[in-house]
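_Per-residue structure_
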Amino acid sequence: MAAATFAPPPHHRRCRRHLSHLSPPSSTSLLISKTWFSNRKMAPFSSFWASIEPTKTAHGPLTHCSPSPPSSSSSTSPAEVSTPTAESCVNFGLSLFAKGRVKDALEQFDTALTLDPNTQEAQAALYNKACCHAYREEGKKAADCLRTALREYNLKFATILNDPDLASFRAMPEFKELQEEARLGGEDIGYSFRRDLKLISEVQAPFRGIRKFFYVAFTAAAGISLLFTIPRLLRAFQGGEGAPDLWETSGNAAINLGGIVVLVALFLWDNKKEEEQLAQITRNETLSRLPLRLSTNRIVELVQLRDTARPVILAGNKETVALAMRKAERFRTELVRRGVILVPVVWGEGREPQVERKGFGRSPKAAASLPSIGEEFDKRAQSVVAKSKIKAEIRFRAEVVSPVEWERWIKDQQKSEGITPGEDVYVILRLDGRVRKSGRGMPDWQEIVKEVPPMEAFLSKLER
């Protein structure tokens, strides 16, 4: 499965700063790690996401957008009472959402959109309004807000793909429709996501553009030649003195016409392959940010296992998956040597997405309970034996988080390969995150041990 990389916008997580106080960080990956979201929630901007702080700033205290009576004190200075603005409404709406007052937060974001917001403020208001609708399971309204932000305010689709607050929305059919629209591009949603996908496609197939250029050039040349050949062919049919040879002229016309047909067919075939590749890249990006929970309760995205593990996704009914897991135990030592980590996905489990219902982001208490990426496990291990068992379990098995999203990705992958959605399937990934092998039923572990090289082997280094 191709690892797609291009520059992402930072995202808004816990809105703790003012809209104008953050400079854009640099990054080279489309996929935003969960660690990026661990400490803040930033409002999306057109070229960057500025952070928001619903507290006093250099511009004076922020006020909410609800009308308030003027102060009767003569000592009140203009700096102490600020006029409601789109920026302050966004700030106040975010603080309300953090307290669980979603309806009030929506009113503030709606008000912000009526106060002549600039591009950045409008984008922030629309995006956070979509998060509120996603919280309330209003998929259509959330999609409409995001569609407007994508079309008119340059919202990056990568932000929607990676925001945990939109996990419930990504499990809805409205997200699938929005993603397909963004992949195809158009006036209703903009072309930014499609441009990003095409950049990745060009890296994977660098000569496609050159081929299409020659298809067009040769087709034009054959068309011009055919244009001049048609009058000669008519004269040849009429015969008479000075008429060109009929068979020779007919042969030239046939060659030109055949060339045009072949070149147009090749051009259309290349276009079809490009669309299939863009669809695969979209699925790959969706897969790479799906979350996993390791046995130590550490939550990571699949992309964070690149270069260190080969995930094997087992999807099917409970009995089939359980049987495959038991068979894998017989080859556990060899599979661990090859970096295999089992990811069981049972059809029908977790129909309702697990969503935190207390505002943007994970609560501090919940966040504190989760080990951070790269955290040492010495405190968890009471002995060398216990520590080795923990490490082996981390590399051998993981639990899916948000099973609905996992099921949706697997079923999309099944459709692309002509497999009936819902069948028992397995997907083996390479170290670089690309699909190595997939098929119906459950895998033959003995065959996998023979085919997949150990982590220290030279062939494994080539996969990274």
Observations:
- The beta strands are 291-294, 299-301, 310-316, 340-346, 398-400, 425-429, 435-440.
- Residues 1-81, 352-387, 389-393 have pLDDT under 50 and may be disordered.
